[in-house]
Inverse folding.
């Protein structure tokens, strides 16, 4: 029997039951049992047996459809009253055996010969309708096509999987139709937005033409294929200067240096400025324009909303853009205003399928266990998953998850519940999946434990350039393995809690494209105490190819980005081994934009730890590092009033920062600077920073040197015990030193047979492979050279080709 008929059979028999007057026997068929009714009961039908995809329960129609020849419908043609005492009682047998339920799309635009009407006889054309009919253990087989809905899973032990070899797309978009020329805007067409688009849910949206992402009307115009390249022509960014804000106002002003603002009304436009440090970046609403200058009312709760003046010269320059309908001037641009979408097509608009995002989310699950999602593609929507235990996401893709948004704060919470957003999720595996092209996070784990990310590619993440990460986790016990991270506005991976996270055999390329402080692997700590990373392991990874964004802040006191391979701020109890770090220098930045001392740029490791004591192990073994500017950066703070603070409350174990259990062995370093910056401060009784304090002449002073041995010795005098053994220093600028490797130009860092680094190491139990190991990341094997995912992407069939 057809599944839909099976699910509704009880209702049919309920209606027919009035024909069995005086029936005293039990009749069974499929999932229902008919018994004599209680004489005192009301005659009724079982509405729970109807097709769950139906919006209403039309009992009259169902009864008529299921009558045999010669019968008449009691609801419409039998004038005789129903004898209630004789009506049978329906007892429904609940299905207990799990089964496969098939879902068929009624929209397959890439199959030109498909007929949506041919799907009418299938059980379900909606994933949610099918889900409402499931029991624990069921598997939904989703067939080829587009499903425009929020897949919402509410039952335990459910599997959703694409039919083998079929392309399934769950979309947050709706089709837009009814475009007509906008008479006041040549080349522009206008239509009503879909009725289910609400700005209260999505203040900003996204638009696609034949499946291809289209751009918000913008000044300057965006014409290249990179949303995070402010220095390139056509990036959609402009250089800003004459940056200031008067005292006691939130109205700021900037001038576009190289572009002439179109002579149109931009009142109410959205302004985005990458100005100074990340915490100083600003959103605002344009209040006026004059020549190439705009004034804007700041939306961001930072210096721009404070009463303090931002004086001219505090920021010499920045980068920014403006969004507004009146800037719509090149094909492919759009804008939504007053429930209308304005769009300039690249071709005859009748040949284009225009879609607009109307749903904030495309996948949801809450309070369920044992959930599997396999082979499904999601576009134009986030995926919040909470209170789930035992989750498997396999062979899925998530693209264009979060639209542009304005945020008030500089914090991890600014983009909460964006991307694949997991909260209180336990025992989750995300594997063989793809996350790309979004203004916010790729994967954000707010809490939980046992999170595995394996063989995934996460790229083109964080177009907003603020607090976004390819993978952010505050969960306990994380494993990130065999993944590729590339092109991020800020971090590739980030944790800022004392969690265990193993990062193994991953490839990291071009982090921090819109940022100025942090790194590819970012462990951050903003508390008063160091974090114990529970024996975390960072091993067999490649980190390479940095870009740098010029910055200007604090009257030229902060004018170089701090871009780091491993940002391990105030953390201890971890081991870093067999990693390959190379080509961190952005030579275009150095040649054209560097300002003064560049010691912060292109750094391998940042420890901080300020006044915090790193008491557990910090071990670096068999790493190869090549072509960067700085090895190690330590920012040490002396607690000037150490004897006066409340030690029982604050539990500071030492009067300044320190590294107690370091061990750095078998590493190949480049000739580069290392820096120990020594300062002093007083602290409040609550542990907050107080005024700076002048170091006495007897105390150790700061040191910046390219002599790594001298640095290790000086650090030891300040209680930073690296305990170096069997390390070697090579110079990436020396042609002779290059010959230690097979071919540095192509990234082949196998040691040459005659390199003195071969067999020069010390044996480290559990790390090295022999009693006389080679130095560097390729000790024992060339495993590190294959770091990254092996993911093969599907053909995204909704991206129609003419």
């Amino acid at each position: 029997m057809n599944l839909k008929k099976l699910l509704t059979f009880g209702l049919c028999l309920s209606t027919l039951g009035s024909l069995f007057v005086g029936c005293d026997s039990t009749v069974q068929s499929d999932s229902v049992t008919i018994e004599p009714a209680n004489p005192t009961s009301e005659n009724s039908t079982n509405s729970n047996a109807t097709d769950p995809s139906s919006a209403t329960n039309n009992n009259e129609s169902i009864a008529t459809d299921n009558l045999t020849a010669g019968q008449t419908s009691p609801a419409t043609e039998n004038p005789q009253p129903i004898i209630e005492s004789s009506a049978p009682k329906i007892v429904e047998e609940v299905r207990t055996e799990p089964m496969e339920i098939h879902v068929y799309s009624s929209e397959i635009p890439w199959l030109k010969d498909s007929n949506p009407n041919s799907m009418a006889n299938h059980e379900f054309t909606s994933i949610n309708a099918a889900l409402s009919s499931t029991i624990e253990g069921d598997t939904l087989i989703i067939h080829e096509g587009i499903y425009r809905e929020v897949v919402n899973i509410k039952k335990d032990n459910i599997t959703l999987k694409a039919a083998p070899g079929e392309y399934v797309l769950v979309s947050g978009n709706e089709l837009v139709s009814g475009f007509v020329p906008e008479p006041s805007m040549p080349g522009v067409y206008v239509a009503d937005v879909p009725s289910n688009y609400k700005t209260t849910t999505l203040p900003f949206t996204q638009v696609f033409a034949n499946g291809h992402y289209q751009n918000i009307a913008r000044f300057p115009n965006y014409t290249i294929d990179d949303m995070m390249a402010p220095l390139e022509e056509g990036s959609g960014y402009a250089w800003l200067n004459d940056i200031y804000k008067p005292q006691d106002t939130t109205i700021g002003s900037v001038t576009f240096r190289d572009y002439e603002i179109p002579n149109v009304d931009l009142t109410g436009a959205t302004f985005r400025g990458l100005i100074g440090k990340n915490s100083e970046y600003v959103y605002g609403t344009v209040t006026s324009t004059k020549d190439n200058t705009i004034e804007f009312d700041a939306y961001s709760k930072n210096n721009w909303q404070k009463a303090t003046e931002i004086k001219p010269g505090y920021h010499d320059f920045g980068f920014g853009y403006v969004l507004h309908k009146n800037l719509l001037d090149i094909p492919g641009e759009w804008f939504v205003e007053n429930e209308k979408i304005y769009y300039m097509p690249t071709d005859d608009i009748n040949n284009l399928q225009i879609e607009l995002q109307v749903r904030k989310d495309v996948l949801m699950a809450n309070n369920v266990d044992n959930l599997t999602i396999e082979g499904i593609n999601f576009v134009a929507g986030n995926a919040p998953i909470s209170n789930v235990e035992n989750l498997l996401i396999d062979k899925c893709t998530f693209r264009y998850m979060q639209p542009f948004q304005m945020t008030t704060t500089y914090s991890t919470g600014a983009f909460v519940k964006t991307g694949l957003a997991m909260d209180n999720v336990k025992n989750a595996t995300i594997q063989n999946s793809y996350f790309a092209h979004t203004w916010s996070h790729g994967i954000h784990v707010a809490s939980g434990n046992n999170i595995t990310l394996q063989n995934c590619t996460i790229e083109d993440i964080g177009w907003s350039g603020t607090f976004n990460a390819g993978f952010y986790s505050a969960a306990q016990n994380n494993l990130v393995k065999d993944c590729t991270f590339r092109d991020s506005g800020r971090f590739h991976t980030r944790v800022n809690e004392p969690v265990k996270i193993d990062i193994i055999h991953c490839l990291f390329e071009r982090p921090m494209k819109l940022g100025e402080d942090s790194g590819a692997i970012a462990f951050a700590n903003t508390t008063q105490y160091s974090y114990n990373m529970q024996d975390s392991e960072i091993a067999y990874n490649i980190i390479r190819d940095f870009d740098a964004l010029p910055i200007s802040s604090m009257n030229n006191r902060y004018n170089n980005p701090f871009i780091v391979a491993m940002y391990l701020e105030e953390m201890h109890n971890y081991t870093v081994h067999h990693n390959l770090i190379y080509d961190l220098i952005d030579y275009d930045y150095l040649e054209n934009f560097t300002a003064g001392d560049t010691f912060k740029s292109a750094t391998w490791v940042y420890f901080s730890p300020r006044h915090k004591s790193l008491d557990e192990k910090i071990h670096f073994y068999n790493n190869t590092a090549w072509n960067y500017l700085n090895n190690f950066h330590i920012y040490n703070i002396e607690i000037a009033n150490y004897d006066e603070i409340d030690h029982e409350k604050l539990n500071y174990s030492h009067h300044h920062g320190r590294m107690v259990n370091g061990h750095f062995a078998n590493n190949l370093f480049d000739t580069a600077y290392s820096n120990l910056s020594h300062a002093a401060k007083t602290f409040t009784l609550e542990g907050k920073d107080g005024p700076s304090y002048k170091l006495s002449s007897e105390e150790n002073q700061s040191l910046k040197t390219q002599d790594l041995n001298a640095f290790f010795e000086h650090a030891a005098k300040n209680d930073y015990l690296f305990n170096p053994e069997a390390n070697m220093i090579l110079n990436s600028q020396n042609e002779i030193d290059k010959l230690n490797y097979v071919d540095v130009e192509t990234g082949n860092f196998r040691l040459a047979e005659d390199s003195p680094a071969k067999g020069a190491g010390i044996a480290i139990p559990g790390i090295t492979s022999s009693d006389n190991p080679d130095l560097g990341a390729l000790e024992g094997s060339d495993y590190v050279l294959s770091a990254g995912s092996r993911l093969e992407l599907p053909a995204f069939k909704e991206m129609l080709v003419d």
Q: What stands out?
A: DSSP finds seven helices and 59 strands in the chain. The chain has a mean pLDDT of 88.
